[in-house]
Amino acid sequence: MKELIRLLVLLLLLSPRLPAQAPGAPPIAEERAKAWLVAFNSGDKAVLKAFLESYRPSALEHIDDTLEFRERTGGFELERAEESTPTRFAALVKEKDSDQFARWVVEVEPDEPHRISKLELRAIPRPAEFALPRLSEPDALAAWTRYLESETAADRFSGAALLSKDGKVVFSHAYGMADRPSKTPNQPNTQFRIGSMNKMFTAVSIMQLVQAGKIQLSDPLGKFLPDYANKDVASKVTIESLLTHTGGTGDIFGPDFDAHRLELRTLEDYVKLYENRGLAFEPGSRWEYSNYGFILLGVIVEKVSRQSYYDYVREHVFRPAAMTSTDSLPENDKVPERSVGYMKQGQGLWQPNTDTLPWRGTSAGGGYSTVEDLYRFALALENHKLLDAAYTERMTTPEAQRPGGDHYAFGFGVSDDDGMKCIGHGGGAPGMNGDLKICQHAGYVIAVLANLDPPAAQRASTFIADRVPLK
Fold this sequence. Notes:
The chain contains 15 helices and 18 strands. It is an alpha+beta fold.
């Protein structure tokens, strides 16, 4: 039966199309787009390969990545066409296995056989016309429980999730395994690697020094790193542009990182590796995520405080927030409650992410925490235990618009989805994913951590954020 279905799908995808002038025939771009969607949604490598060979051969070398993406999303449902011409089709689509929407654009060559020249899927906030109905808090929590249990059973979630309302925890549960071979279950106090969520701690540290009058947001990088090799970067990049990812300082990941991954043991080691690199763009002219920018901020914390970055955040962020299970100790240090991260590799099997990890977490990311500690961090921010009210507001006020429609402040994302206004940060890398949403107006804090690939945690946090009451 499976082979018969495959044959029917192939015949549908590859049969000659009606002449362009035939009554009722869709424009060729729309036809190609929908045929690609059928092949992609099938999850069948032979079906997808046959389509790509005919209409998008350049994508054949990435077919395994495409199929992994299909597994992660469950495929897409076409919700609404926005544009349909002979050479371009644009539409709104939704992931089948989540609430995530995307804008889908397909362009085809004008000449036969009208191969696909562009195919883009860009995640967007859920459009207002497709807004989900808000539920009562008990109903939302019941729906979240069903979702997390279903995702865990499908092996798409493993981690911990917490929700608080007005300073009181109303949901805290863990799912899946912290260590699969030993069958050690995750617990609410299990420590998970948090990826880029460290950036919130770095931003708080910088703003504490600003509040103390030791740093000005307009200060150039070179004021604190006078020997920085690239003088153009040192003179043009400011503290503020580093905090908002508008400094043009680039990333740390790529061939250089891969070649030196275990040699990069201090923040200064990263600077030595990348300080000769020029600007990616003129500072302030646009937004582009920069892990290296937050490495530089960590170095500035060290120069100004005369402490290591790690000692500073322990003393000035973690301790006042009562975060007793958060740190960035080297990976070879034994941390008993730290989970093993699992990533999909090869035949779609979960494998430990050990060989992808840096020597230790940095001011840009890679530390570890618990959902309970992230909740305490949120409370400390809201109760001004880390910064006074004015500097907390300054740090979390939107500064730059990000692709997808939301905004970035100083080390914090700022979103407003269907009236649910939140600040926070996500983090993700192979075998790790996390998200913190501090939704002050509604009174909620959402913390989700996972020891699986993205978007395991971020899907879960978005699910509940879209359903709890606005007040």
